[in-house]
Write a structure and sequence with these properties.
By secondary structure, the chain is of the alpha/beta class. It is 35% helix and 25% strand.
Length: 202
């Protein structure tokens, strides 16, 4: 029998104790330790960045010579000197020039923790999650350099394999990760694309 849902589980408590804005920070931390998506001096774009848990991890690793850019519909309170945030609709007509303007150069990695407002209808939630993941991939193609890395949350469903296939067309290596900090009842995974091809078909 599965354990009852606990909104204040050990990762929630740990995040509070360590000053992290969201327990999801540990998901990116695990992915980063396994695959080294970014390093000191890198420019990283984080989509669906509020409240800033991913940005805290990114800022710590890229350091003062690097830059973390967070995009979300909601304003994000200041995090660190090497973090910039912008309130932006990712479905807006965002040009490559506008994205590159944020960092001044192509990004070395793109992360996405975007998730739809869930309805409780699994098919609907999966479809909305897939649309967000597809948009994250499109924006990565627009603004990341060849060789860049990608990590994107996705609700598992009937189209998961198709999405994975598309990512494989654009990246040299793809991994599917379910971080330890993922809630037991959640059907989310992270699709990790390593080393974006020069002409990524995403």
């Amino acid at each position: 029998m599965s354990k009852p849902y606990d909104p204040r589980d050990r990762f929630f408590r740990k995040a509070k104790a360590e000053g992290l804005r969201a327990r999801s920070a540990y998901k990116l931390d695990e992915i980063q330790k396994r695959y080294r998506l970014f390093k000191s001096g890198d420019a990283v774009l984080d989509l669906g960045a509020a409240p800033g848990g991913f940005l805290q991890i990114i800022a710590r690793i890229v350091g003062p010579s690097g830059l973390a850019i967070g995009i979300d519909l909601e304003p994000i309170p200041a995090i660190a000197p090497n973090v910039r945030t912008i309130a932006l609709d990712i479905y807006a007509d965002v040009s490559r020039a506008r994205l590159l303007e944020l960092a001044g150069r192509p990004f070395d990695a793109v992360t996405s923790d975007m998730a739809p407002k869930t309805t409780g209808i699994r098919a609907t939630d999966e479809a909305r999650s897939l649309a967000l993941a597809q948009r994250a991939l499109e924006l990565t193609r627009l603004c990341a350099r060849p060789g860049a890395h990608f990590a994107c949350k996705l609700f598992m469903g009937g189209e998961t394999k198709n999405y994975e296939r598309v990512v494989r067309e654009g990246f040299e290596e793809v991994r599917i990760v379910r971080p330890e900090a993922t809630r037991q009842r959640s059907f989310e995974i992270y699709v990790v694309g390593l080393r974006m091809r020069s002409r990524a078909k995403v």
